Amino acid sequence: MGVVEEAHNVKVMGSGSKTVVLGHGFGTDQSVWKHLVPALVDEYRVVVYDNMGSGPTNPDYFDFERYSSLEGYAYDLIAILEELQITSCIYLGHSISSMTGVIASIFRPDLFSKIVLLSASPRFINAEDYFGGFEKEDIDQLCQAMESNYKSWIDGFAPLVIGGDMDSVAVQEFSRTLFNVRPDISLSVFRTIFTFDLRHFLSRVTVPCHIIQSSKDLAVPVAVSEYIHQNLGGKSIVEVISTEGHLPHLSAPEVTIPVLLRHISHDITTDDAC
């Protein structure tokens, strides 16, 4: 195993002719794909990995400056693909990792045949001409709560993001992976995500993009998926699924997994992209 593979806990499963790479979102790790991977391995070569700073990674490897922007994560993704000698892949990224894939595809479009964006947002804070869902004051308050009492913050944040109560299996799972992240790293990543503005990158994306999100997502209003669709430089398609929460692949796999499989296996047609 190479240095990059080991640092990101890379696992390769299946042996299909096409490769699917799965990137997880904030506060989770590769285990969040547990409902999807079994449905992929018979047909695809599947690669999962942990973003630097997630619970299973070595916190000493987390460079606060490198990961203060998504370019750091994009370079990690490219390094993983290069070390595995993957020349083209279908990339499925959730939340932060969806935008990581977008940026990586601008740097190296040859490495991506398509990107599936799940619960993606190029900017979470509202602007004069853009509805991202949050005011800056909302983010400041959330950061203060994280600094004050990380465990209490998780107890409040996890049910809101998942769209369930603390007794929900999905909420408990998300709480577990959030709690496994070192609090100072979690706060740094949270600030990076909720203060970035990546809208200017969208027009530079030429790789086909499949945009999927919940009909009710506290973090990403439905209007955001349409904004991404209208501003991407290449072909794209949007599908809003009848699920609640920012992690539908964890909270509603019975609805979400078939949708993800369909977008992984079928390419955008001319009629779709209109």
From TrEMBL:
Report the GO molecular function annotations.
hydrolase activity
Q: Which UniProt keywords apply?
A: Hydrolase
InterPro entries in the cross-refs: AB_hydrolase_1 (IPR000073), AB_hydrolase_fold (IPR029058)
Name of one Pfam family that matches: Abhydrolase_6
**GO BP of this protein:** response to karrikin
Kindly indicate where the leader peptide sits in this chain.
none
Q: AB hydrolase-1 domain: which residues?
A: 20-256
Q: Which protein family is named in the record?
A: Belongs to the AB hydrolase superfamily.
PANTHER family recorded:
ESTERASE-RELATED
Q: What is this protein called?
A: Esterase D14L
Upper classification of the source organism reads: Eukaryota, Viridiplantae, Streptophyta, Embryophyta, Tracheophyta
